């Protein structure tokens, strides 16, 4: 078997800010190719501090170690806020299957700033991580605009309200066999424009290729996984694809260990009308009607909770 990891490219962003035009264009071309053909890439030299992310993982472990009653004090309540604690099996990313074997804490800018239950350290770590993720997604959004030959700040301007979600995820150790069809995270595509994913070394993340096979997307040191979501796919009329992925249960000893990951779901502003970009419907007709980013997100969350 060839190494499936190699199908997802690793793109170095080091010279995007500092390089000459040719170096920048090379990065843009590689990002375009990855998002067009696979919808997934690894980035390295993103500029984020690995120490910061490590700290966020530590806070995540501390949070999920709290008793259930404490976590439920800040339970996720509704789609329009989309923040708070989501218990095990509550979410079904694949609505045809049993609930996911995971728990999550969804954070947005408001809940990071205002939640009195978080320690000062947790608060500042989450806020700094948020800011770092915004910087990275802004760079990626700029490469997207360059790749599509639209004004470089087009996507950035449509994301400046920071309607994103920072999500801490914990997949508990498995004490008993899962239900039929149950996995750690059911197969799905993400809802927004771009997702950044940080994961530990337990593994299990799988990505579906165009011919339907599932390939592993393991953690690669000092990289972040980036994938394009459904709204970006709609906006670009499938020039950038939103690819199905899932988190499988390890078949070995690792199933008895916790898995932790952190996702940053980058979303357009609530009132952004996501309609096919003019340059993306010259070869084929627009596949979707226009929809506001907020209405789209709410409809997708309603289907999974
Ligand atoms: O935990 C992971 O590795 C992936 C999680 C995921 O795909 C999601 O929450 O959308
Ligand atoms: Fe996902």
UniProtKB/TrEMBL annotation:
<comment type="pathway">
    <text>Antibiotic biosynthesis.</text>
</comment>
<dbReference type="InterPro" id="IPR044861">
    <property type="entry name" value="IPNS-like_FE2OG_OXY"/>
</dbReference>
<keyword id="KW-0408">Iron</keyword>
<protein>
    <submittedName>
        <fullName>2OG-Fe(II) oxygenase</fullName>
    </submittedName>
</protein>
<dbReference type="GO" id="GO:0046872">
    <property type="term" value="F:metal ion binding"/>
</dbReference>
<dbReference type="InterPro" id="IPR005123">
    <property type="entry name" value="Oxoglu/Fe-dep_dioxygenase_dom"/>
</dbReference>
<dbReference type="GO" id="GO:0016491">
    <property type="term" value="F:oxidoreductase activity"/>
</dbReference>
<dbReference type="InterPro" id="IPR027443">
    <property type="entry name" value="IPNS-like_sf"/>
</dbReference>
<comment type="similarity">
    <text>Belongs to the iron/ascorbate-dependent oxidoreductase family.</text>
</comment>
<dbReference type="InterPro" id="IPR050231">
    <property type="entry name" value="Iron_ascorbate_oxido_reductase"/>
</dbReference>
<feature type="domain" description="Fe2OG dioxygenase">
    <location>
        <begin position="162"/>
        <end position="268"/>
    </location>
</feature>
<dbReference type="InterPro" id="IPR026992">
    <property type="entry name" value="DIOX_N"/>
</dbReference>
<keyword id="KW-0479">Metal-binding</keyword>
<keyword id="KW-0560">Oxidoreductase</keyword>
<dbReference type="Pfam" id="PF14226">
    <property type="entry name" value="DIOX_N"/>
</dbReference>
<dbReference type="Pfam" id="PF03171">
    <property type="entry name" value="2OG-FeII_Oxy"/>
</dbReference>
